[in-house]
Amino acid sequence: MNQINQVAIVGGSHGNELIGVYLVKKFQKYPDLIKRTGYKTVSLLGNPQAINAGRRYIDRDLNRCFTGTNLPDGETSIYEEIRAREIQTILQPQGQASVDVIIDLHTTTANMGLCIILGNMHPILLNLAAHLSTINPLVKVYIHEQPRNSGFLRSLSELGFAIEVGAVAQGILDAELFQHTEQIIYAALDYLEQFNQGKINENINTLTLYKSISTVDYPRDENGEIQAMIHPQLQFRDYQPLHPGNPLFLTFDDQEILYEGESTVYPIFINEAAYYEKGIAMYFSQKQVIDI
Ligand SMILES: [Zn+2]
């Protein structure tokens, strides 16, 4: 790809993640903020019904509905599947050019800072992420490799990525994180503008990234009931090394459960509220420094 023609900014795919919701409302009120000369930028709210209800979703997690299998055929009464089709029609209209870049805005109750989530290692994405890392020390880069149409909105586009910011509670606006996120979006838009103009002359040679290895569920009994909490020494320690023997969970009767893996890992999304129902207490990642 040598020219970006269309960029989409989506907020509120999860209705209780308010920073993205209100950023998109701001961009729709003041479209000049995201207007750049070299390409067209659109902004849209992902899940309007969930936003109105103040919930993550109505029937199903919208950000798992972009699978290709339920798109574009077949009947469904599930609101998020219908909405996923509508969004795909907006971003990828039949017979017309698709959006080249999707920026999907999320918040998390985990201490993720300003996390750029990439679904693939496209060189444009890696260089953009490296550039954004220079803007704000809170920026971290997480690679969760997913094929196209893997369910995530960002997977609709080769150059799709998410900005996942936290820690912030669901249903809460945090002004400082709002401003940080806004600056990252403008920096990304400016970068894409410079890319189109062939003006990228940074010499960033390496990028630190966290690559997804596995998920870890809470200890549960045979009925699925949670038996332990995130250990207090691990809470909010996203991106910090977890060594074999370090505490992972604490049971309700004060027993420590230790990490028994053989190598050091870097937990992220620790204690994300929305992941309890998904059976995820945290992700384990590997920290890598790569040449770009
Ligand atoms: Zn989200």
Can you walk me through this structure?
This protein is of the alpha/beta class. The protein folds into 2 domains: 6-204, Zn peptidases (Aminopeptidase, 3-Layer(aba) Sandwich), CATH 3.40.630; 209-291, Single Sheet (N-terminal domain of TfIIb), CATH 2.20.25.160. Helix content is 23%, strand content 25%. It has helices at 18-29, 48-53, 79-91, 123-135, 175-196; strands at 6-11, 40-45, 101-107, 113-118, 139-143, 159-166, 206-216, 228-230, 247-251, 256-258, 266-268, 282-291. The strands form 2 sheets. A 9-stranded mixed beta sheet has the order 2-1-3-6-4-5-7-12-11. The radius of gyration is 19 Å and the shape is globular. The two termini are 17 Å apart. Bound molecules: zinc ion. The site of zinc ion has 3 residues, from loops.
Summarize the entry for a quick read.
By secondary structure, the chain is of the alpha/beta class.
List the helices and strands and how they pair.
Blueprint: E1 6-11, H1 18-29, E2 40-45, H2 48-53, H3 79-91, E3 101-107, E4 113-118, H4 123-135, E5 139-143, E6 159-166, H5 175-196, E7 206-216, E8 228-230, E9 247-251, E10 256-258, E11 266-268, E12 282-291
Parallel strand pairs: 1-2, 1-3, 3-6, 4-5, 5-7
Antiparallel strand pairs: 4-6, 7-12, 8-9, 9-10, 11-12
Helix pairs in contact: 4-5
The protein binds zinc ion.
Shape: globular
Instruction: Sketch the topology as an H/E string, one letter per element.
Output: EHEHHEEHEEHEEEEEE
Helix percentage: 10-25%
CATH superfamily annotation of the largest domain: Zn peptidases
Flag low-confidence runs: none
Q: What is the name of the CATH topology of the largest domain?
A: Aminopeptidase
Binding site for substrate: 56, 63-64, 164, 275
GO molecular function, one term: aspartoacylase activity
EC number: 3.5.1.15
Binding site for Zn(2+): 14, 17, 106
